[in-house]
Amino acid sequence: MHGRHARLVQSAVTGLSLPAEQWGAARALGRQLIRTGTTVPAVTAGLALLIRLGEPEDVPALSVLGQFREFAGPAVNALDILDPRAAAVLWLALHAGRGELQPLAHALWTGNRQAVRSELIAFPTSPRFLDSATARRIAEAPRLPDLLDQAPSDTDLLARAGRLLVRMGCSPDDPTDLLDYRDAPRLYETVVTRSGLLPATLGNAALLLSLALDLSSGTAVLLDWPPGRREALLDSLGQLLAEPRWARAGATASEADERRRADWIRRTGRQPFERPGTPGRFRVEVVAGDPADREPVEARVLIDGRPVVPAVFGRGRTNSPEYLLDEGRLRAGAEPREVQLAEAYCTEGCCGALYVTIRREADQVVWENWRRSMSGSRDAAAELPAHRFEASAYDREVARAETDGSWSWRARTVARLIKAGLTGEPDLLGRWDASRGWTTTDFDDPDTALVVFSYLPGPASGKPERADSPLQFRWDIPDDGTPPEAQAAAALRRLAEEDPKTYARVCGGSRERAEELGFPWPDGT
């Protein structure tokens, strides 16, 4: 065996059957291997045993071994069980590199508590920099709830703690990081109960609303809460944000990003605090997150008050309302229909997706045959039970969610109306040898509707037809401030009267094909 076999060794040792009477011998063997092993497979086998059977006295040796690239992963896994703080410090030291986290990682590694506080509020917290795993480790490493208890009036540290919770709960890459953070309920408790100390700024209002959305229908619902405590924290946030000083937080917004954020707060501000008018087992909550974070909009599905996707699929968010609601995928018919509820952030082909089959049976709607697809696998999620809902209540909830556009901003509504028009009249694009791609809002500019279509010359065009080489075009439609219905109608009218290839721009295909058909290829690509 060689170093390249380390993963196989770890997997084999992890799967070994170990009767309780052998635990002591296995633990001793693990310690012997990590201390005296001279090959990667031998030390890896020892680490795999200590992941299962390690004790606090093993923490120093595991922390040393974790500094070697070959052993970093299993060492962190073992420390996560024995000492989450040590695991987090090691993880941050390994991932800091030469980036913005390096000063914080150094302060944690050397135990400089004064520097830890300074660095905690200094590093950037944008989504590009701070994913859910990093946020979790930053909270674990200094034992953040303890740090807050030692500085109860430190509002900068309090706001930073809230931001870390938001990134753990709202990040699209792995919603399980919040669930793996053992101190999450305690940190929510501290941040929410002291939130009245925060200055009533636009940023803090967005922070508290983001926390409320997660406590209402997001991953935070799944934490191990004492009975009624989550609801009490949510009510507390609702009362605070209803105070006049917080209601005025976005009144003076002048920059485009600030105005967009203030508009989101006005649209969304009461959503997490409203109780369903007709409580039922099945609920859909469309959640648009803080526009400053550029998070995707998701149609959260809740069964018995618990969000389904983060509970059973830790690789991505619930799909968009355009996918699940606008196209009627959640409607129940006599014929069973498999519906994709979520797709991995990287694509289904890489890390899978979550599916469920929906059907109507007499006066009930049944969700069954759950399936988590993985690359090269179509295994059923056998441990997920079937759910039955009273059909009339289910239909009412789906109809309510489909018609409720209160979450949407103007450009997003324009995009949805254009998509509906193109779906209802395929010939609007077909007459130009074009086919519909996707219609949404631009990621970098959410106030611009985006229509993407493919072009493949037809026989009448007189141009060489190559079915395997379509060109992709994008048409940007900036929000002009008029009602969304008027903007969408004007866009559909233009598509009907003018060839969109004359005003859209190429965004995909190949340079050679674009030049062959007489279209300019975008600069810099």
Structure description:
The protein has 525 residues and is an alpha+beta fold. It has 25 helices and eleven strands. The strands form three sheets. Strands 4-5-6-7 form a four-stranded antiparallel sheet. Strands 8-9-10-11 form a four-stranded antiparallel sheet, with helices on one face. Residues 375-380 have low confidence and may be disordered.
- Oligomeric state as shown: single chain
Span between termini: 45 Å
Enumerate the strands of the largest sheet in spatial order, edge to edge or round the barrel: 4-5-6-7
Basic shape: globular
Q: Give the proportion of residues in helices.
A: 40-55%
Number of H- or I-type helical stretches: 25
Gyration radius (Cα, Å) is 26 Å
Mean pLDDT value:
91
Number of strands: 11
Unreliable residue stretches: 375-380
Structural classification: alpha+beta
Q: What fraction of the residues are assigned to beta strands by DSSP?
A: 5-15%
Largest sheet: 4 strands, antiparallel
Q: In brief, what are we looking at here?
A:
With 525 residues, the protein is an alpha+beta fold.
Topology:
Elements (H helix, E strand, L loop, with lengths): L5 H9 L8 H14 L3 H14 L5 H7 L6 H11 L1 H13 L5 H9 L2 H8 L11 H9 L3 H7 L4 H16 L5 H5 L3 H10 L8 H16 L11 H13 L2 H4 L8 H13 L13 E6 L10 E6 L2 E2 H5 L8 H6 L10 E7 L4 H4 L1 E9 L2 E10 L13 E4 H13 L6 H15 L2 H4 L3 E8 L6 E8 L15 E8 L5 H14 L7 E4 L2 H7 L8
Antiparallel strand pairs: 1-2, 2-3, 4-5, 5-6, 6-7, 8-9, 9-10, 10-11
